[in-house]
Amino acid sequence: MIHLTNLQARQFILLKQGLIGENKFIGKQGVLQYIQQSGCLQFDPVDICGKNAEISLQSRVKNFNKKMLYELLYNDRLLFDYPDKQLSIIPIECWPYFERYRKLAREKLVEHPEISAHIEEFYEYIEKNGAVCSDDFNIKGKTNWRSAINWSGGGSLARSVLEQMYSMGDLIVHHKRGTRRYYDLARRNIPHEILDEQEPFPDDFAHQKWRVIRRIGAMGLVWNRQSGAWLNIWNLSTSIRREIFRELLAENVISELSIEGLNTKLFFLTSDLPLVDKIKSESKFMPRCELIAPLDPIMWDKKFIREIFGFKYLWEIYTPAEKREYGAYTLPILYGEQFIGRMEAVCDHKSNVMQVKRIWYEDSTILTKEISRALVSTLERFAEFNDSDIIIEEDVKII
User: Fold this and answer.
1) With bands split at pLDDT 50, 70 and 90, how would you rate the model's confidence at 394?
2) Nearest CA to 310 among 1, 5, 4, 6?
3) Mean pLDDT of 274-299
4) Strand, helix or coil at 193?
5) Is the Cβ–Cβ distance between 60 and 27 less than 8 Å?
6) DSSP code of 234?
7) Burial tier of 78 (Cβ tally within 10 Å: 0-12, 13-18, 19+)
8) For 323-349, how does the pLDDT look when each residue is reduced to its tens digit (9 = 90+)?
9) pLDDT more than 70, % of the chain
10) Strands of the chain, DSSP E
11) Which terminus of the chain has a lower count of CB atoms within 10 Å, N or C?
12) Region 300-314: what's the mean pLDDT?
């Protein structure tokens, strides 16, 4: 078994994530490479200082801008929107692997005759007119429809019909205007060789196994416990997860390691063994200062992060204001191999100003000149990412 120190374990995770040392993800191609590595990137529409997926990418991808992700999704069609770990951004080559979810959505349609009554009408209209939103249809009424794939549900009948067709794979998100989605026929936007490819999994267990592999690759290092890393892998019980890990070890798809002071075994993709060699041959890596998204893959298992990094983090956006310990939308601050604090920033897109409202430092953080300079540079880069000027509140300590 491989043995690492706690510092080496952190270095392993951060090198895998592209958050330490020289940037390994660069430009638009780097965006695609990172999402292919992580399998999926969780999407959230909240935009306080950038959307979750965009914030994840700006921390890793050198020279990233928001236009790159939009183009990869809606112009190049190398990525697509679909539920994975909640609503996610997924490489287009993974389209066939989610056929079982589209099939279930088709089977559930029979439970909603108010939806099925409009499917053919909507399909013909879109085929003739191109990309649409729910406002393009003059049908009234509400429905208690709920997507079979944990997408959304209820409300406007027109919107529910479109989302049902999206769930079944008839439609894709063609583009967005703000948060409004416009849908078009999947067959007009996805290569036929991908649409026609059969899902390769013989049963649910094989599919669950594939999804577990992807989640391990996304986090870099995991433990075989209940974890946010396994969220929305359907019917993944503890016993099934343990059997998947047993098989993956026997097949040498994953390897195990131990960390000093931690009794629990950890696991990583065997293909990442070169990272172990790298951290054992190099003791130091160039530190970077990065702002991490609340739903970033590195934050999927908050108990794991607390154990390895000693950093306790909770996304408090849904916590009542009077019960919040910090702000509603705080971003962890990473410097080198350690989380040094968290920041709350708000962008006013009308005035193009980003206001840094608060920074809460960890008790162990000492603001050296190097850290201060790196933090200032990171905040300036983050404001540029948001196309904003920066205002730092007077009581925010940086230098």
Assistant:
1) confident
2) 6
3) 95
4) helix
5) no
6) T
7) middle
8) 999 999 999 999 999 999 999 999 998
9) 98
10) 2-4, 25-26, 41-42, 61-62, 79-84, 86-91, 142-146, 153-156, 171-177, 180-185, 222-223, 254-259, 262-269, 289-291, 330-335, 338-348, 353-361, 389-392
11) N
12) 97
Query: Residue type for 319, please?
Result: T
- The bridge status of strand 41-42 relative to strand 86-91 is antiparallel
| Lateral strand order in the sheet of 330-335 | 289-291, 330-335, 338-348, 353-361, 389-392
Structure tokens at 243: 């059997």
Give Cα 323 distance to the centre of its chain.
26
The whole-angstrom separation of Cα 151 and Cα 170 is 15
Rounded Cα distance, 264 and 269, in Å? 17
What SS3 class is residue 322? helix
Per-residue pLDDT band for 103 (boundaries 50, 70, 90) equals very high
Burial of 266-296, coded b for 16+ CB within 10 Å and e otherwise, reads bbbbeebeebbeebeeeeebebbbbbbbbbb
**How many angstroms separate the Cα of 76 from the Cα of each of 29, 121, 265?**
12, 29, 41
Residue 151 pLDDT > 90: no
**Mean pLDDT on 163-186:** 95
Rounded to an integer, the average pLDDT of 243-257 is 98
Query: What DSSP element (H or E) covers 116?
Result: helix 113-129
The answer to whether the CB of 92 falls within 8 A of the CB of 197 is: no
Q: Which residue's entry shows tokens 């399909």?
A: 123
Q: Which two tokens stand for residue 391?
A: 């205002």
CA distance 205 to 203: 5
When pLDDT is averaged across residues 125-136 and rounded to a whole number, the result is 96
- Closest by Cα among 67, 99, 293, 50 to 175: 67
Report how far residue 246's alpha carbon sits from residue 253's, in angstroms, rounded to the nearest whole number: 10
* Phi, then psi, of 238 in degrees rounded to 5: -60, -45
Residues 35-74 pLDDT 10s: 999 999 999 999 999 999 999 999 999 999 999 999 999 9
The two structure tokens encoding residue 339: 């989380």
* Structure token digits, residue 38: 């992580």
Burial class (CB in 10 A: 0-12, 13-18, 19+), 393: exposed
